[in-house]
Amino acid sequence: MTASLILVINSGSSSLKFSVFDSTQQTEPVSGLAERLDTPDATLKVSTQVGTRQTAIPDADHQQALRAVTDMLAAEGFGPDRLLAAGHRVVHGGETFSSSVQVTADILAQIEALNHLAPLHNPANMEGIRALSTLFPDLPQVAVFDTAFHQSVPPAAYTYAVPHALYRDHGVRRYGFHGSSHRYVSSEAVRLLQLDPADHRVITAHLGNGCSACAVKNGQSLDTTMGLTPLEGLVMGTRSGDVDPSLHQFISERTNLDLDGVTAMLNRESGLLGISELSNDMRTLIEAAEEGHAQAELAIEVFCYRLAKAIAGLLTATGGLDALVFTGGIGENATPIRERTVYHLGWLGLNLDVTANLTHGRDQMGIISTTHEPAVMVIPTREEWMIAQDTLTLVSAH
Ligand code: ADP
């Protein structure tokens, strides 16, 4: 049987998400998630076209979880002989990687040298690559970086106004994340609107638990809202986004939190959750706001206002707008969030089509504005698909 399957892996510190794509049929026959790894409650959940199954894999580490995944895939008829390659999501590629690469020992060392830029994420991503290499030493593996798409951002947009030695000596600059998502939805917008690939200006808003927006001109990212870390920029589920840089010191002087404590607060107790004191989940907040919960309403308004303000700022990079694209769990599903954000941008000539806004979402992508120049669109993101595509392209080239 010819090998045509691409295994896409997103390995986190205590979880491992995977999907399998069939490169000949452009389908995704199986996907799943192993979570609570290294604990007695570790489980593996697998979804196929016929349904979802859950298995206990107590105390499994990344390698044992991957073994369970590949055994289960074999049982479903997707044995290792059918695997063509694996693609891994890697969070930080620093300035070293401006596109996806096939993994070699040298590449692994280069990724490892960037661990200080994403100490929570990159080592966990590497663990997935290492575990798979141990199981299948001959399987080609590709690394796809969240930051790579933003390597086209110019110095004026990525340089922080701090002593330049911090950039030279420690790589302190803005990098941006969610690159696969911004790349995918912006190219889909260009395709759907039949824009000129060499002459277009698109703003993409990826709104999930993490949120970022990106300015794309002629296929290249020119600016984005996340920075050195994913904490910068928009208001997110539990992350504050932009705050006064003096806040760390202020909070630590007023409370007994140390630097780590303040960082944890800004990452895990802030954003929608922090303002609402209710939830980080946009569905819950929308329902609560409709029932009169004042802080849920405030959280939503801050979220939309800050997003609109960031989009307006990103237009400085593009110098105009052909399309504004919403994606991610909130961008694809939360109709009131799209409505409020676009309302703040009415002065740009954007006007939502109320009916189209209600009918478009995860299952129906397309234009939701009365105007087509510029257009407001909903395009479901497909980050795993992008990883599979890059993997296939690189492996075919070798
Ligand atoms: P992640 O960044 O973890 O991949 P998602 O892209 O799935 O997250 O986005 C999660 C967010 O999407 C949550 O805030 C969730 O409430 C929101 N969301 C999902 N479905 C809806 C919906 N129907 N209406 C409003 N918000 C939704």
UniProtKB/TrEMBL annotation:
CDD domains: ASKHA_NBD_AcK_PK. Its EC number is 2.7.2.1. It is an enzyme of class 2 (transferase). Catalyzes the formation of acetyl phosphate from acetate and ATP. Can also catalyze the reverse reaction. One of its GO terms (molecular function) is ATP binding. GO terms for cellular component: cytosol. Substrate binds at residue 89. Pfam families: Acetate_kinase. The record marks 178, 239 as: Transition state stabilizer. The active site is at residue 146. One of its GO terms (biological process) is acetate metabolic process. It is found in: Cytoplasm. Mg(2+) binds at residues 10, 383. The gene is ackA. Belongs to the acetokinase family. ATP binds at residues 17, 206-210, 281-283, 329-333. Pathway: Metabolic intermediate biosynthesis; acetyl-CoA biosynthesis; acetyl-CoA from acetate: step 1/2. Its cofactor is Mg(2+); Mn(2+). Its main location: cytoplasm. Homodimer. Signal peptide: none annotated. This is Acetate kinase. PROSITE patterns: ACETATE_KINASE_1, ACETATE_KINASE_2. Keywords: ATP-binding, Cytoplasm, Kinase, Magnesium, Metal-binding, Nucleotide-binding, Transferase. It catalyses: acetate + ATP = acetyl phosphate + ADP.
